[in-house]
Amino acid sequence: MTSQEPAIEVRGLRKTYHRAFRKGGNEALRGMDLTVPVGSAFGLIGPNGAGKTTFIKSILGIVQPTEGSIRVLGGSPEDPRIRARIGYLPERLHLPGTWTAPAFLATVTRLKGLPVDPTVNLRLLERVGLSDAVGRRIGGYSKGMRQRLGLAAALVGSPSLLVLDEPTDGIDPMGRMEVRRILQDEVQRGTTLFLNSHLLAETERVCDRVAILAGGRVVREGRLEDLARGGVRWLVRFAPGANMEALVAAGFVRGVAEGQYVVEAEDPAALNGALDRARAAGALMVELRRDGTDLESVLMGTVEAAA
Amino acid sequence: MKPVLGIAGYVLREALSRKFILAFLVGITLVLTVVALSLRIEVVDGALAASRLFGEELRNSIRSVDVALRPVYQAAAFLVFYGGILFGIVACSDFAPSLMSPGRIEHLLALPIQRWHLLAGTFLGVMTLAVGGTLYGTTGLVLIFGVKAGYWTAGPLIAGLLACVGFAAVYAVMLTTATLVRSAALCAASGFVFLVGGIIAGYRQQMTPFFEEGFGREAFKAVTLVLPRLSALAVAAGDIASSTPLEVRSLGLLLLGVLVFGFGALAVGFWRFEGKDY
User: Fold this and answer.
1) Helix (H) or strand (E) holding A235
2) Residue B1 sits at the chain A interface (C-beta within 8 Å)
3) Could you tell me which residues are beta bridge partners of residue B44?
4) Tens of pLDDT along A225-274?
5) Are residue A244 and residue A215 in the same domain, yes or no?
6) Among residues A186, A209, A227, which one ends one of the domains?
7) CB distance B114–A80 less than 8 Å?
8) In this predicted model, what pLDDT tens digit does every residue of B178-231 receive, in sequence order?
9) Are both A203 and A106 inside the same structural domain?
């Protein structure tokens, strides 16, 4: 793979599920285009039935596309050499209940064509917080522990691309923080992360790029800060006692909360100019932030607009 | 080949963790132990002078050991053939549907293995289990009678292997069924149907006159022509185990027919699995 080549590149991807004895079919993906840069933490979000899981299965060769092209890590997902560089955690990982975690990881390691090193696998289990449960059968694990083991299996062999479908499903808040830390470490290491999670706060915290999928198409895609940006609007809060007329004259518009104002500034110079005028009028600034929207609002707005 | 062995290991590990398979192995061991401890055979000049089971005398007439043991080995061969295939159908019906269950198949298909590796590995794992169990039981039987009667024969072992060939054809159908529907019950049902069909196919010549001439008879002949002749294979296994002349005209052709059927069924399964979305 050349350095310019993206980790995932999908063009005109269509997938129609045909059922026996039924005309037509269910169109899960309708001409999807997406590029995931190498080394990015990419989040895929969208409503139920948008085609997220079908897309993930398509880039792993589990589902065969009806139309379109897919390139993963510079090759075809059908190529085992490419899949050897991918770590995948499915949405509902079904684990063999009578096995122990080290035995399961050893089998995954073997199937990935790697030499089994029990020390490395134990370290991996330690990393996902399962060091106390190595001797126990997987059948006795909680849902969160199973997810952690699934994550450990995905991390076997230090993959170049991690594809995780709902990785923190069933994990407690403390565990989520740990998983987030692991994912952030992996991204820092240079791994490309492709995350599908219905927990938008998690996507916001982990990912730097997001694509919104609705009706089998990518309806919006870009850097998270660009998607969530509210344009040129800034929210400013002044200490009590600020002169409202003077602030309005300085270009500020009264906000909803007490002492809150909104100002529009195209660049830092314009923003600081407005703030200087407010300070000159005796107002003391206590808070300044960009008037952005959270991912949930972005998703809602985008999906509604696409509908 | 490595991924195939890896998947076979996966299946074997899964099998050995199942209680009923362990119970089956313990059961075989117990039967062999009971036979070994309770059977007393006295041989004089190569002839069976007396035999006692649980202290009760079994037969008074003096016959040569190999002749005396014929019915024993023949019965054992039939038991291993039909009992083994029936047990295999029930015990192994869940392996392929379990590997193809949601949440497991996605994980396996995302690993760097080809799809056919998965089916070939499952087939290999199940057949290793079948051959291992059969050889364990038949070797035990041969050892017991060999030590007690001084009569050594590889017949029961070969008969056991023929039973495995029969089971391979039946399991090929079950595996192919699993690629169509992820249901252990339907896999077992298909295996059972083909076992019964295979028994009927072995007696097709004798059964054909029972059908009225015309479409019914031709349909029966056509259907049984493509089925593996399992009952004929069982009879051959019994003959080999008891060291009697073979009733079947050509064991080679019979085996070839069963193997061609098995490979054909597997080929359909492989083709279906390659194009299937999970």
Assistant:
1) strand A233-238
2) no
3) B47
4) 777 665 677 889 999 988 888 899 888 998 878 888 989 888 889 999 99
5) no
6) A227
7) yes
8) 999 999 999 999 999 999 999 999 999 899 999 888 898 999 999 999 999 999
9) yes
